[in-house]
Amino acid sequence: MSVAEQDSGYTITPLTEVMGAEIVGLDVGQPFDADTLATIRDAFQTHHVLCFRDQHLNDDQMVAFSTQFGPLEEFPEKDHTKGKIEVYHVANVNQAGEHLPEEDPTVVYQRNNGRWHTDSSYRYIPSLSSILYGIEVLPDEAEGGETGFSNMLAAYAALPDDMKARLEPLHQVHSYADIRRLEPSIPPMSVEERDAFPPVTHPVIRVHPDRDYQRSLYFTSNTSLEIGGMTLQEGKELHRWLVDYVSQPEFCYFHRWRKNDLVMWDNRVLLHRAIEYDFARYRRVLRRTTISGNTMILGPFFPEARAAAGRV
Ligand SMILES: [Fe+2]
Q: Is the pTM of this model over 0.85?
């Protein structure tokens, strides 16, 4: 099924039933006119993952594209940036183009991002969207390297009622520094970096004011595994259940990268993960920008959410 945008010269085609659309014939290196921006925003809200094919962008153009959707986040650790503080270097290759060993912290971070998560949930107001640009991608015959997405709106809707009830009052601790619990080889943050990103908690069930307070799951498995009111062991066990649950194929789409793909996704309603590949054998270079969130995380006890659910 292909949806041609009349007279615009580009097409938006759904990738799967559960999420994703491919946009072909649109040069995102140029600023969008108002109609195009509105169309892309609508497609983002509907499909959650947009893949713009065949883009040729420098860092300035990537920032210019991204800021059409909101202000950009800066990254918590300065040494991950390339040129611009808003542009994150996601690669197993360093800035000089040298292939990094598997134990390099940059590569370890990527391995950690193989766990389901949503970006910058360690912030009080987490990210709206992340954008990745494929500069060097794995050859067709290589295994892994995809970015996996799981739809948290669909996952919540399909939960058994007893699990919906169990999750409803829960909050998770989100902490950037706690990545080191899972990956102890990552160097500690400086005192200044830690002070700038203290742990925060967010409801495990998130409601979405822009979707009539529809509910989704909202958790991460790549930082702290603490759930408020539970022992750490109980929190870990609940995370294990949630990870297995959201990994079911009916909620997921795995994006196989083509060179020059620009992929943007909705961190509010999706989890994502980097699928592991042979880090020693293959090079993979992506650039990332992150669009700041525009709303705090609201849980199911928020008054408007209760009213929308028919409760007082
Ligand atoms: Fe991520």
A: yes
